[in-house]
Design brief:
The complex is a heterodimer of chains A (113) and B (113). Chain A is mainly β. Chain A is built from no helices and eleven strands. In chain B, strands 2, 4, 5, 9, 10 and 11 form a six-stranded mixed sheet that branches. A five-stranded antiparallel sheet of chain B has the order 1-3-8-7-6, with no helix packed on it. Chain B is mainly β. Chain B starts with a strand and ends with a strand. In chain B, strand 7 and strand 8 form a beta hairpin. Classes of the chains: A mainly beta (113), B mainly beta (113). Chains A and B meet through strand 5, strand 9 and strand 10 of A and strand 4, strand 5, strand 9 and strand 10 of B.
Chain lengths: 113, 113
């Protein structure tokens, strides 16, 4: 079975721009969660989607948003980029809701200049 | 307020010996615990998990122990191999909850030849 895939793997943007990241979960998995990893804060939960519905959101500003499609693929969007948004963005999928084991993709490295 | 703590940023162990990685948590609602291994520029790879109804779970060279009264878990790797050198993250959540995984800051395990 193919693992979680994320595109693009690397991205460079400038302050004020917006960015959309994509995640395809493992086939059959219905839940997709997003995490941000930075050297200072570690891995932090952004949000989780299950059956196209956002179940919860971590402590991030409204500039961070996401959605899930009927095929379980998910996108996250960051608007009005700030330098501090530079991070590794990780997507994880699980069969059920977040209490199940989550399997991570390789991540998208976003650099904001 | 860190709910999951890994107090050792790094650990060096000789090849063939036992590696013991520790993790403490403060949220008594957590009932599912996971260990992930991460190489640079890659997503975390799931290693092993344990439910709060158990105190031990074993999978090959990896064993996780859970001490609920002490709110402490540990990952034992026996015997340690060079390929085990990576950053190990402890994570916890509430099954059925919607807050995603809460991660520790990680322990960098270095296996010395």
């Amino acid at each position: 079975k193919a693992g979680v895939t994320q595109t693009p793997r690397y991205l460079i943007k400038t302050r004020g721009q917006q960015v959309t990241l994509s995640c395809s979960p493992i086939s059959g998995h219905r839940s997709v969660s997003w995490y941000q990893q930075t050297p200072g804060q570690g891995l932090q939960f952004l949000f989780e989607y299950f059956s196209e519905t956002q179940r919860n959101k971590g402590n991030f500003p409204g500039r961070f948003s996401g959605r899930q499609f009927s095929n379980s693929r998910s996108e996250m969007n960051v608007s009005t980029l700030e330098l501090g948004d530079s991070a590794l963005y990780l997507c994880a999928s699980s069969y059920g809701q977040s209490g199940d084991t989550q399997y991570f993709g390789p991540g998208t490295r976003l650099t904001v200049l | 307020d860190q709910q999951v703590k890994q107090n050792s940023p790094s650990l060096s162990v000789q090849e063939g010996r036992i590696s013991i990685l520790n993790c403490d948590y403060t949220n008594s609602m957590f009932d599912y615990f996971l260990w992930y291994k991460k190489y640079p520029a890659e997503g975390p790879t799931f290693l092993i998990s344990i439910s709060s109804i158990k105190d031990k779970n074993e999978d090959g060279r990896f064993t996780v122990f859970l001490n609920k009264s002490a709110k402490h878990l540990s990952l034992h790797i026996v015997p340690s191999q060079p390929g085990d050198s990576a950053v190990y993250f402890c994570a916890a959540n509430v099954r059925g909850g919607a807050d995603g995984l809460t991660f520790g800051k990680g322990t960098h395990l270095i296996i010395q030849p």
